[in-house]
Design a protein that fits this description.
By secondary structure, this protein is mainly α. The protein has 13 helices and no strands. It starts with a helix and ends with a helix.
Length: 226
Amino acid sequence: MIPDDTYMARRLLLLGEWDAALAVLGPDAEPELRAEIAVDRWFFRIEGHDEAEKAVAALDPASPTAHLLTARLAYSRLLFQHDPRADDRTVAEAGYRAAVEHGDEKLRGWAEYHWAVLLDNIDEDATGALPRYETALRIATESGDGYFESYIIRHLAPHKEPAERIAMLRRSLHLRAALGARPQTVAAQALLADNLPEDDPERAELMRTFRPGAEELRIGWLLSEH
C-alpha cells in the first residue's frame, strides 16, 4: 500500500502544488520523490534551483534516478540560461546515457525522451532526437502511460506536417486534462494556441484560458513567452 503522504504528494504534484507536495512529505519519505518534486518545481517556476540540487545530491549518486535528475538540472540551466555551467551539456548527456543503461524500463523511457529533448532543443539535432523520441513513445504506448505519452508527442509534433502536428498537440492536451495534470495542461493549451492560425476562434479561447492558470501556478517560462 502506498503511504498516505506519498499519495498526497503525488496528487499535489499533478496539481502543480509543489510547495504543498514537499510540505506533506514526512522525514522518512522517499528521497527520490522529494527530489523529483523539487526538480519539477524548479523547471516550471524557475525558482528553487538550490533546493532542487540539494535534494538530488541527497540521492545515491550511482542510482539511475540521480543520473536522470542531475541531467535534467543541467539541461534546464542551459535551456533557461540560468547560471549555466561550462560542463552542463556534457553532464546532461552523460546522465541520460547512464539512466538509459541502468534504469528500469519506465525510467529508461523517460531518459530516452529527455535525451531527445536535449538534442532537439539545445543542439537543434532533429536527426539524433527523433529515434529517441520514437523509442520513448514505444515504451509509453506499450505500458499504457498516457501521462508519459503526452510529453513525447508534445515534442514530436513540431517535426510533423501541420495536420498531424495539430492532432498530436490536441491529444497531448486531452491526455493531460484527463489525468488532472494541471501545469502540463496549461502548457499544452499555450502550445496548441501557438500552432493555430491567429484568426482561429479556438486559439483565442485557449489564450484566454491558459494565462490565468499560468499566473496562478507561477509558470515563469510560460508567462515570459506570452
